[in-house]
Write a structure and sequence with these properties.
The chain is mainly alpha-helical and about 230 residues long. It is built from four helices and five strands. A hairpin with a 6-residue loop joins strand 3 and strand 4. The protein is flat. It comes from Cuscuta australis.
Amino acid sequence: MARGKIQIKRIENQTNRQVTYSKRRNGLFKKARELTVLCDAKVSIIMISMSGKLHEYISPSLCTKQLFDQYQKALNIDLWSSHYEQMQDQLKKLRDVNRALRKEIRQRMGESLNDLSLEQLTELIEDVDSSLKLIRERKYKVISNQIETHKKKVRNVEEIHRNLLLECEARQEDPYGLVDHEGGDYNSVLGFPNGGPRILAMRYDPDQHHHPHHNHLQSGGGSDLTTFTLLE
């Protein structure tokens, strides 16, 4: 069954348009390969899709430079000269822009003002004032950020100081943690024997009040007096 004729016009559906492009591109490249083999022809096809992607087919015995050289020879034109002229024109425009920018910078620094008219000087003053305003705003913003950062650091230090004070107050009754308030097994005494700072911890017998004659410190291996050296 023969296929119906397709009306040649732009395909509105983007997906269908891309599928058609891919199928017909492959068909063209296939025909180009056949021409290259059957007829010993030099064939080149360059295609750019709607998404800007480049597809090309060049006969294996041909390179891109040779193709353009033969194209120029066949049409008797010079593609490279025209391209070079375009590049020179673009370079000249860029140099003019660079020259104008350098001159504007010198004028903002107070130089090269002799050639300016009164109107141009007025515009320059307004531009400088606007630039100074933006610079001041940026400067004040930076200073404000630095002040806020400093305030945060101060608040952190104050919080650490308050915590330390609370910790010191909590240790006022038992600064060295030697007294067991719950068990009631130890009493502690702070002394400085032999000229050095020491902590003397004495164990007492809960039944001492029943044996008054035992109210003395014993020496030897079973001594109830323990001495701890303070950390310096």
